[in-house]
Fold this sequence. Notes:
Layout: H1 3-19, H2 21-31, H3 36-50, H4 59-73, H5 78-92, H6 101-119, H7 129-145, H8 152-172, H9 193-208
Helix pairs in contact: 1-3, 1-9, 2-3, 2-9, 3-4, 4-5, 5-6, 6-7, 7-8, 7-9, 8-9
Bound molecules: adenosine-5'-diphosphate and magnesium ion.
Adenosine-5'-diphosphate (ADP) is lined by residues 28, 32-33, 35-36, 39, 76-78, 81, 115, 119, 121, 127-129, 177-179, 192-195.
Amino acid sequence: MNTEKLIAILRQIAEKIQEEKDFLTELDNVIGDGDHGINLARGFQEVEKKLDTFAQMEPADVLKQTGMTLVSTVGGASGPLYGTAFMKAGMALKGKEEIHMPDFLEAFQLAIDGVQMRGKSTKGEKTMLDAMIPAKEAIQAQWEQEASPEHVKDAFQAGIKAAEEGVEYTKTIAATKGRASYLGERSIGHQDPGATSFTMMLEVIGGAL
Ligand code: ADP
Ligand code: MG
């Protein structure tokens, strides 16, 4: 993956989030304050406006600019968290014109570490991490079995499946971080909006490769 492809993927993510804005907001209505879709749609709309100006940058800087835009335009917890994720992913790719699977896995891990640090959160707290962490582990595990360009797609399929299962898992647990934690046990039975939006992003990436 190079800058051109990365920009195309970010454009598709922006469009997907726009399409799913109402659904994500509905999910957040049930266990939060009903703004997750609105928040992300606003942020990615700003990212989309800037994408053409990123064409001459290296992938690391595209991700950094994307993250900074999300931090500065998205209200709520998810802005700084997704913003940090994209900025940290960028840091892992410094100086690289082409992103290969090992680079992607490193960037993905730094993104997860960034969310955990910023959110003071971990797996099993009904957050985006419940999709991110299993997805990264599944992509890595599948890649380690067959580390060749023809198997990138398989690795992403495994990651998407794990993220989707992570979303299902969030229905079974109570939130202990974020606004949904105010509901405690009453948050059980409902899927986490952030885990859902992350899974949508991964589906876009997997589909684009
Ligand atoms: P807010 O909760 O401020 O209204 P959003 O509705 O945009 O922000 O985002 C809510 C999502 O953010 C949650 O569904 C969850 O996935 C994620 N989230 C909230 N707090 C944390 C945290 N501490 N760590 C990781 N993710 C979190
Ligand atoms: Mg919210």
